[in-house]
């Protein structure tokens, strides 16, 4: 049986400037708590090590002790999520990382665990893969996936040559795409993959949470 090491590191990608929203999305208040604090608390239940990947560290300085997570910046030129993933893999202690975005208000422990379990199952049955990514609405969800250290040279090549479409990248490496039908058994509406890009998205999230409390 092929050994497949467990993933013990998670990273929250928070490198963007949040231009469409107009403020740093990490600090959006969801139920009177910064979104990034909510997601860090959840990730720390599953992973021994959690990073925040950001090229705008200054806003975090006043609360970094409160958040209790190291900040890491891009090692190579900042080209979006691929640069954050590359730097996180360089810093991670284990064989890979679980990646999420900073603006995902409905991260789900069951879904994260399911993705990790699917990676281990796939590895044991067919051998290791470079990435494990769920599919929802017929699209890969690259910011809810596992990325292996084996990807480092390919990430570096893509960043240097400005080939930074993450979905195109995943189609070129050894990626296990988890079937949407299996994902829907855990998360039928795909809420765990939702993110907040606009003020309207934020209001929709608040409305949904209000409905859940009734």
Précis, in short:
By secondary structure, the chain is α/β, with parallel strands linked by helices. It has one domain (9-213): Spore Coat Polysaccharide Biosynthesis Protein SpsA, Chain A. It has helices at residues 35-46, 64-67, 81-91, 109-126, 152-160, 166-172, 180-186, 199-213, and strands spanning 9-13, 49-53, 71-72, 96-101, 131-136, 139-140, 144-148, 175-178.
What does this structure look like?
39% of the residues lie in helices and 16% in strands. It has helices at 35-46, 64-67, 81-91, 109-126, 152-160, 166-172, 180-186, 199-213; strands at residues 9-13, 49-53, 71-72, 96-101, 131-136, 139-140, 144-148, 175-178. A hairpin with a 2-residue loop joins strand 5 (131-136) and strand 6. Helix 3 (81-91) runs antiparallel to helix 5 (152-160). The longest helix has 18 residues, at 109-126.
* CATH homolog superfamily: Spore Coat Polysaccharide Biosynthesis Protein SpsA, Chain A
Name the average pLDDT: 88
Q: Report the order of strands and helices.
A: EHEHEHEHEEEHHEHH
How would the global form be characterised? globular
Q: Level of helix content?
A: 25-40%
- Our estimate of the beta-strand percent is 15-25%
- In total, the number of strands is 8
Radius of gyration: 17 Å
Distance between the termini: 49 Å
CATH class: Alpha Beta
Structural class: alpha/beta
Largest sheet: 8 strands, mixed
Number of helices: 8
Q: Provide the CATH architecture.
A: Alpha-Beta Complex
Return residue spans where pLDDT drops below 50 for at least 5 consecutive residues. none
CATH topology: Spore Coat Polysaccharide Biosynthesis Protein SpsA, Chain A
């Amino acid at each position: 049986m092929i050994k497949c090491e467990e993933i013990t590191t998670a990273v929250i990608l928070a490198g963007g400037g949040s231009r469409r929203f107009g403020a740093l999305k990490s600090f959006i208040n969801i139920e009177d708590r910064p979104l990034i604090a909510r997601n860090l608390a959840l990730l720390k239940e599953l992973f021994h090590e959690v990073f925040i990947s950001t090229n705008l560290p200054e806003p975090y300085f006043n609360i970094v002790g409160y958040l209790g997570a190291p900040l890491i910046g891009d090692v190579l030129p900042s080209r979006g999520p691929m640069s954050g993933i590359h730097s996180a893999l360089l810093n991670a202690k284990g064989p890979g990382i679980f990646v999420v975005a900073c603006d995902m208000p409905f991260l789900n422990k069951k879904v994260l665990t399911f993705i990790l379990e699917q990676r281990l199952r796939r590895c044991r049955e067919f051998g290791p893969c470079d990435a494990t990514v769920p599919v929802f609405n017929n699209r890969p969800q690259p910011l809810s996936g596992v990325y292996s250290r084996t990807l480092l040279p390919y990430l570096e090549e893509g960043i240097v040559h400005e080939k930074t479409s993450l979905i195109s990248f995943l189609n070129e490496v050894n990626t296990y795409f988890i079937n949407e039908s299996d994902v829907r058994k855990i998360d039928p509406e795909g809420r765990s993959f939702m993110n907040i890009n606009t003020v309207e998205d934020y209001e929709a999230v608040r409305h949904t949470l209000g409905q859940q409390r009734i």
